[in-house]
Amino acid sequence: MKPVRTRFAPSPTGYLHIGGARTALFSWAYARRHGGQFILRIEDTDVARSTPEAVQAILDGMAWLELTHDEGPFYQMQRTDRYKAVIQEMLAAGTAYYCYTSREELDALRAEQEARKEKPRYDGRWRPEIGKTLPPPPAGVEPVVRFKNPVNGVVAWNDAVKGRIAIANAELDDLIIARADGTPTYNFCVCVDDWDMGITHVIRGDDHVNNTPRQINILQALGAEIPTYAHLSMILGDDGTKLSKRHGAVSVMQYEEEGFLTEAVINYLARLGWSHGDDEVFSRAQFIEWFDLDHITASAAQFNTEKLLWLNQHYMKQLPAAELAAKTRPYLARLNVETDSGPCLEKAVALYVDRCNTLCALAEAVKVFYQPVEPSAELLAQHLTDECRPALADFTAGIATVAWDIPSIAALIKATLSQHNLKMPKLAMPLRAMLVGQTQTPSVDAVIELLGREQVLTALKKYL
Questions:
Q1: Which of 167, 175, 262, 408 has its CA 20 to 30 A from that of 385?
Q2: 214 CB contacts (<8 Å, ≥6 apart)?
Q3: What does the alpha-carbon distance between residue 414 and residue 427 come to, in Å, rounded to a whole number?
Q4: Cβ atoms of 146 and 177 closer than 8 Å
Q5: Which residue out of 245, 327, 367, 461 is catalytically annotated?
Q6: Mean pLDDT within 90-103
Q7: What's the whole-model pTM score?
């Protein structure tokens, strides 16, 4: 068997979206699973829409996902001479021809066909045939080049996801493979690239299914081997409609900005349309070991934000405290929070990780330990009541001398509650309000221990 060679070939007209990232992941994993090669190709022939910024966005997204390519990136605009050479070979072989039909003629043809309720298509007026006499080329008209598509029979392939697909050649007209200015078109460039790069498996979105019969016919005309095609179903949003910008974060780098871990996103993308039994959580290495094309579902996959958040928290909780702190620090920096003064960041993130499902949320939660806290007047009025003030005063006196560890602080809280015949919330809630300006925190004794004696005493004396 030939070595497996897959490719990811995005058009640089925007960011790397979730659907593209899944395609890249599946193509990368299939190559890794079979010890093959994964090629990155930038299909930038749409000059009007392709930008350097969009190319960089794709490269950034691939780097963040750690989907390393073995060859490339190749840029189609740098391969124009190769495409033009192949077109000349096809013209010489009779598998392509010049077409001088003007835009006005094509518009008129379309109008006539639509009036007859026919499918709009090129009628082959400049297609050379045995016994057919073509008119002389009109002066001043730069021709396009069309592929001479087979007229009879069907083009068929066994799609690794969708099964056998067959399209009658009569449904396909003669595709333009070079524009009047000589620039080659998308479907043609893809064929030459896949041929030159020895691509054995084309894994891509099912929006390309309609391109596949044309590409197979062009590859056959070139004498190229036909790769295995696997067309992935679309991804739906949480609401069951096609995933789009209105669903929120659809750019890979937006997930990085929002504090998701690479491994969580990879794990989640792997489960969008593929499964390995009931396994929900698995490592990148396990995914490579298990991945195949047989278990990709042909039905649409539905994005579930809650599941992704759950997975992200799972991976956050698996990180050693030092690594979690290192990953959280840049998000604190974005909030202009310095951690040089204050408690150990490792202890802070370890205390709050059970309550946060993104690094952004974790940074927001622990910033109270590193910047001045100003509880709202409403919060203080609600919890700092006359009923609890005597207990808080005694607690303040005790906290000044208590041994500074969680068991000792917990014992002081318990003794204060007993002395004043109060329930825990009557002491814990005002303490949280004064110390961190919140009412929802981990265990209050752990929060106090982390803040440090000096900061706790300063806050208690200020508000009491």
A1: 408
A2: 147, 149, 172, 175, 187
A3: 10
A4: yes
A5: 245
A6: 95
A7: 0.91
